């Protein structure tokens, strides 16, 4: 029933309305930026190690085309980004200092400044002193409860810093926060940047005009997030390959024993529905045939490959097996387009990375057009050193999910319409 409901309630229609809405909005190239003060909402919510060092700066790197474009227009740039979840109070470990340092490396010829606050008198003074081509990084807006509350006063203060607003924060575009949404009420001219444009373009490739056969790979362990995606992809994708921790809830739904493997019992009925209904919508769902099992994730006493019919009570499934890898490769070999969200095993452990790595390598070697979504799949590509060889890695998982479901992205909705 679930799939039919998703189709009936017009989610796909709403999705297309979403895309049309985006096409009506101003992009950075539609704005008169010359010599202006521009507030750019970026999503520099980068992963940090325990020493506070950035482990992956893709979210910074991907905004460089927009920042260079603004510098060429002689703008004064004010950057605002959240980092982590400080829950409305100052947390020193979530200050934007590491990002500030990285920006200085990317822009050695510019004057890069960092404010200790996000709004207030001192910030205003710093903005007043900015010269063309200076870049000012504001402090974490999530240090203020007003940010998440989308508080009008906070939004107004932020807006007062600039003449133009540009959004590059795709990964946060589904949030109605002061810096992503409220601020737009108090600034006349606002548009989206190049990263945002690219993300939305790839989104439309996934949903609108996929090259066929179109295969979606879903892995990882958060079953409920991905089930929402499946609902919207059935009827669009030709094949859905399920791996990673997700696969075990599917195998359980089909009546297999899964030992101590990860599962989401609350989703069993839903999963049964998908398995039953998908053939009616011309979408094939593929599950592993064999899996790598061990006794425990961290210090396994044994690791072996078993067919899915032989998973024992003491087994924990941690990767797809060699027979499955070969079967998945055959499906992928015939595919013209692939979207991949979630690793196929516990890739962080070298012993369990094989499935994810083999499939990633195959897609690259065969030059199959592949879009990667979700932080962990991106981290896996980064770990294997494949990040620059894949067609596109998206910076936002949640926002793309919202779009697929037909929910209007607030950060797009609030931008200026094209004239
Ligand atoms: P997600 O955020 O849902 O994409 O999940 C990503 C995480 O799933 C990664 O950290 C993987 O280690 C984990 N994962 C992949 N396969 C399995 C598995 N078989 N059992 C448990 N966790 C898994």
Topology, pairings included?
Elements: H1 2-8, H2 11-24, E1 37-41, H3 58-61, H4 64-72, E2 76-80, H5 97-106, E3 112-114, H6 121-129, E4 135-137, H7 145-148, H8 152-159, E5 164-167, E6 189-192, H9 194-207, E7 214-218, H10 223-233, E8 239-242, H11 246-253, H12 268-277, E9 284-286, E10 290-294, E11 303-307, E12 316-320, H13 322-333, E13 337-341, H14 354-365, E14 369-373, H15 375-384, E15 392-393, H16 398-404, H17 410-413
Parallel strand pairs: 1-2, 1-5, 2-4, 3-4, 5-6, 7-8, 7-13, 8-9, 13-14, 14-15
Antiparallel strand pairs: 10-11, 10-12
Helix pairs in contact: 11-12, 13-14
Residues 219-222, 244-245, 262, 317-318, 342-343, 345-346, 348, 374, 376 line the site of adenosine monophosphate.
- The overall average pLDDT, rounded, is 92
The strand order across the widest sheet is 3-4-2-1-5-6
Roughly how many Å is the radius of gyration?
23 Å
The geometry reads as globular
Number of helices: 17
Ligands bound to this protein structure: adenosine monophosphate
Fill in the CATH topology of the largest domain: Rossmann fold
Largest sheet: 6 strands, parallel
Class from helix and strand fractions: alpha/beta
Low-confidence stretches: none
Q: Name the CATH class of the largest domain.
A: Alpha Beta
The CATH homologous superfamily of the largest domain is called Phosphoglycerate kinase, N-terminal domain
Measured distance between first and last alpha carbons: 43 Å
Percent of residues in helices comes to 25-40%
Number of strands: 15
CATH architecture of the largest domain: 3-Layer(aba) Sandwich
Total discrete domains: 2
| Quaternary state of the chains | single chain
């Amino acid at each position: 029933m679930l799939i039919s409901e998703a189709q009936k309630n017009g989610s796909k229609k709403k999705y297309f309305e979403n895309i049309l809405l985006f096409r009506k909005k101003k992009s950075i190239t539609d704005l008169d930026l010359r010599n202006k003060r521009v507030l750019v909402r970026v999503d520099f919510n980068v992963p940090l190690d325990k020493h506070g060092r950035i482990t992956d700066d893709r979210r910074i790197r991907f905004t460089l085309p927009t920042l260079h474009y603004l510098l060429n227009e002689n703008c004064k740039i004010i950057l605002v980004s959240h980092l982590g979840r400080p829950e409305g109070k100052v947390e020193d470990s979530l200050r934007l200092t590491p990002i500030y340092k990285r920006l200085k490396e990317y822009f050695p010829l510019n004057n890069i400044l960092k404010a200790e606050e996000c709004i207030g008198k001192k910030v205003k003074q710093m903005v007043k002193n900015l010269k063309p081509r200076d870049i000012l990084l504001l402090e974490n807006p999530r240090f203020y409860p007003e940010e998440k509350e989308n508080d009008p006063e906070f939004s107004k203060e932020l807006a007062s810093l600039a003449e133009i607003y540009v959004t590059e924060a795709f990964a946060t575009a589904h949030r109605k926060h002061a810096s992503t949404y409220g601020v737009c009420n108090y600034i006349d001219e606002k548009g989206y940047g190049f990263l945002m444009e690219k993300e939305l373009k790839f989104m439309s490739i996934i949903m609108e005009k996929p090259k066929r056969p179109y295969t979606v790979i879903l892995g990882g362990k958060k079953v409920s997030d991905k089930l929402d995606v499946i609902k919207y992809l059935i009827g669009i994708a030709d094949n859905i390959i399920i791996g990673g921790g997700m696969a075990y809830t599917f195998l359980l739904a089909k009546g297999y024993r899964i030992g101590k493997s990860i599962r989401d019992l609350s989703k069993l009925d839903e999963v049964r529905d998908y398995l039953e209904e998908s053939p009616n919508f011309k979408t094939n769902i593929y599950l592993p045939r064999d899996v790598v099992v061990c006794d425990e994730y961290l210090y396994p006493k044994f690791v072996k490959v078993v067919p899915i019919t032989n998973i024992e009570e003491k087994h924990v499934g941690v990767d797809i097996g060699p027979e499955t890898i070969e079967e998945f490769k055959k499906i992928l070999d015939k595919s013209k387009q692939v979207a991949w969200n979630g690793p196929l095993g516990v890739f962080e452990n070298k012993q369990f990375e094989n499935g994810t790595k083999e499939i990633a390598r195959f897609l690259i070697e065969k030059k199959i057009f592949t879009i990667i979504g979700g932080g962990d799949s991106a981290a896996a590509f980064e770990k294997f050193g494949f990040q620059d060889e894949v067609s596109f890695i998206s910076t936002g998982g949640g926002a793309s999910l919202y779009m697929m479901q037909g929910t209007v992205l607030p950060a797009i909705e609030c931008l200026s319409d094209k004239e």
